[in-house]
C-alpha cells in the first residue's frame, strides 16, 4: 500500500490509526515468524514500519490494560481493577483522546471498550463513537443502534472504520479538515462465552482456512512445565488450568480451537486491508488524489497475550511471555526508506502507546503519564536511558491469582501475595 506515496498533505499533524486487538499474542502473525497464520496486511505494515520485538503489557487483563492504553498509567495509578469502573473525569482529562480533542483532532472510537458502562460517550470526547459495553458477540451484534445484519463483528467493525474515514474526509462532517485519530478496538481473537459457533467463532468465509494444517504444540505445553507451577494452580477451580483443559485438553480440541483462533486473527487482517485501502481512496470514487496514506501513522498492538495451553494454561493474567508479550508495530509512511522494515529490541509497553500518539500529534505529554513515546526509536534515535525492566501487577480476582512480577531483559520474577507469597524465577 505504501510503496508509491502521493505528495504529503499540507496538514501539519499526521492522522493516527490505532489498530488494537484483544488477546493477540506477539507470535500470532506472519511477521513474527508464525508460518501457519496468514496476516498479509499486518505483514505489510511490519515491512514498511518498525517492529518492536519486545513489547509487553503492564497488566494482562483487558479492563486494566485498556485503561492503561488510554491514560498511559500503571494500574496502581489509574485505579481501574474491575470491569464495572469508569476512568475518572480527572484521569480522562489527561488521556490521549481528551488531549487530542483539545488539540482539535477529529476523533473516532470503534469496538470494545472493555471497562465501565459506556465510558467512551461519558465525556463527549469523540466525534464518531461506536464503542460497545461488555464483551460483545461475534454475531448478531448491535452498535450505536445499528445491527450487524448477519455480518461477523470483525467485518461490521471494518465497515464502521471505513465510514469514519469517509466522514473524516467529508467537509460537511469535518469542515476544518482536522487531522483524525481513530482507535479500532477489535474483539478478536478473544473467546466468547455464549453464542453461535463456540468460543472462537470466525467469519464463516474462513472456515476452511488451515484445515490442512497441523498446529504444533509449544515446547512449554508439557506436564513437567505444569508440575513446576505453584500448587494452587492445580486446584480444580484455578481458572488458567480449568480453561486450558476445557479448550485444549485433547488433541482434537487443541487443533480445532487454535485454528479458529488463527482464523479470527486472519479475519481482522482482512479488515485491516480494507481500512488501509479506504485511506488511499476515502470517498471510494476510484481516484486516489484525496489519499490520506502519506500522512497517516498506523499503530498495531493488543491488550495482552493469550495462553494456547503452554504450561497447560488458558487465558492470560500471569507473568509469562504468552500472557504479557504482544505485537507492536508503528508504521509511519514519512520514514526514510532506510528505516522502514527495521526490527528493534527496546522493551516497550502498552503505557507507551498514548505518549507515542501525542508525540506524533505534537501535543504535550501529560506529566501523569508513566509511559514514554516510542517515536525517537521509530525515527532511529533511541534514548540511551530506555528501560531494561518493568513491573507487571495483576489484581487478585478469586481463582485468577493476583501477582506482582518484574520482567528484565533476561529474567522474570513473580510473587503471588494472596497465595502465601509463593515465588517464581524464570530465565
Describe the protein.
The chain has twelve helices and 16 strands. The chain has 427 residues and is an alpha/beta fold. The strands form four sheets. The protein has an eight-stranded mixed β-sheet with strand order 4-3-7-1-8-11-2-12, sandwiched between helices. The radius of gyration is 21 Å and the shape is globular. The model is unreliable at 1-10 (pLDDT under 50).
- Radius of gyration (CA) equals 21 Å
Determine the mean pLDDT.
93
How many DSSP helices?
Answer: 12
N-C termini distance: 40 Å
How would the global form be characterised?
Answer: globular
Structural class: alpha/beta
Widest sheet, order of strands: 4-3-7-1-8-11-2-12
Strand fraction equals 15-25%
Characterize this entry briefly:
This protein has helices at 40-48, 62-71, 75-78, 89-92, 96-102, 153-168, 223-227, 239-248, 251-280, 321-324, 352-361, 375-379, and strands at residues 15-21, 50-56, 106-112, 128-132, 142-143, 146-147, 180-185, 296-302, 307-308, 314-315, 328-331, 343-349, 389-394, 403-408, 412-416, 422-426.
Amino acid at each position: 500500500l505504501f510503496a508509491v506515496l502521493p505528495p504529503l498533505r499540507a496538514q501539519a499533524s499526521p492522522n493516527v490509526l490505532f489498530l488494537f486487538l484483544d488477546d493477540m499474542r506477539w507470535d500470532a502473525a506472519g511477521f513474527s515468524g508464525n508460518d501457519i497464520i496468514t496476516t498479509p496486511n499486518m505483514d505489510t505494515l511490519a515491512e514498511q514500519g518498525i517492529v518492536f520485538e519486545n513489547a509487553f503489557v503492564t497488566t494482562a487483563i483487558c479492563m486494566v490494560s485498556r485503561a492503561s492504553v488510554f491514560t498511559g498509567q500503571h494500574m496502581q495509578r489509574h485505579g481501574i481493577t474491575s470491569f464495572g469502573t469508569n476512568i475518572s473525569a480527572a484521569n480522562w482529562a489527561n488521556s490521549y483522546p481528551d488531549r487530542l480533542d483539545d488539540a482539535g483532532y477529529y476523533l473516532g472510537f470503534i469496538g470494545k471498550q472493555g471497562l465501565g458502562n459506556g465510558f467512551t460517550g461519558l465525556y463527549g470526547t469523540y466525534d464518531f463513537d461506536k464503542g460497545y459495553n461488555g464483551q460483545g458477540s461475534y454475531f448478531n451484534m448491535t452498535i450505536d443502534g445499528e445491527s450487524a445484519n448477519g455480518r461477523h463483528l470483525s467485518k461490521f467493525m471494518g465497515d464502521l472504520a471505513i465510514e469514519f474515514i469517509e466522514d473524516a474526509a467529508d467537509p460537511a462532517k469535518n469542515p476544518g479538515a482536522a487531522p483524525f485519530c481513530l482507535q479500532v478496538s477489535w474483539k478478536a481473537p478473544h473467546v466468547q462465552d455464549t453464542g453461535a459457533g463456540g468460543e472462537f467463532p470466525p467469519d464463516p468465509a474462513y472456515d476452511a482456512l488451515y484445515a490442512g494444517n497441523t498446529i504444533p504444540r509449544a515446547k512449554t505445553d508439557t506436564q513437567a512445565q505444569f508440575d513446576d507451577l505453584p500448587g494452587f494452580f492445580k486446584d480444580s477451580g484455578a481458572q488458567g488450568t480449568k480453561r486450558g483443559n476445557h479448550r485444549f485438553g485433547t488433541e482434537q480440541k487443541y487443533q480445532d480451537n487454535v485454528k479458529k483462533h488463527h482464523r479470527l486473527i486472519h479475519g481482522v487482517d482482512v479488515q485491516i486491508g480494507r481500512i488501509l485501502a479506504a485511506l488511499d481512496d476515502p470517498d471510494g470514487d476510484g481516484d486516489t488524489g484525496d489519499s490520506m496514506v502519506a500522512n497517516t501513522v498506523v499503530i498495531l498492538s493488543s491488550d495482552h497475550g493469550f495462553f494456547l495451553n503452554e504450561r497447560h494454561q488458558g487465558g492470560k493474567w500471569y507473568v509469562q511471555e504468552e500472557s504479557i508479550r504482544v505485537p507492536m508495530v508503528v508504521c509511519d509512511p514519512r520514514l526514510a526508506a532506510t528505516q522502514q522494515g527495521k526490527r528493534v529490541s527496546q522493551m516497550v509497553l502498552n503505557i507507551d502507546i498514548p505518549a507515542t500518539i501525542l508525540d506524533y500529534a505534537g501535543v504535550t505529554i501529560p506529566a501523569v503519564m508513566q509511559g514514554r513515546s516510542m517515536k525517537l526509536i521509530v525515527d532511529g534515535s533511541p534514548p540511551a536511558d530506555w528501560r531494561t525492566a518493568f513491573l507487571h501487577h495483576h489484581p487478585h480476582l478469586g481463582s485468577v491469582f493476583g501477582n506482582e512480577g518484574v520482567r528484565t531483559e533476561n529474567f522474570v520474577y513473580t510473587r503471588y501475595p494472596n497465595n502465601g507469597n509463593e515465588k517464581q524465577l524464570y530465565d
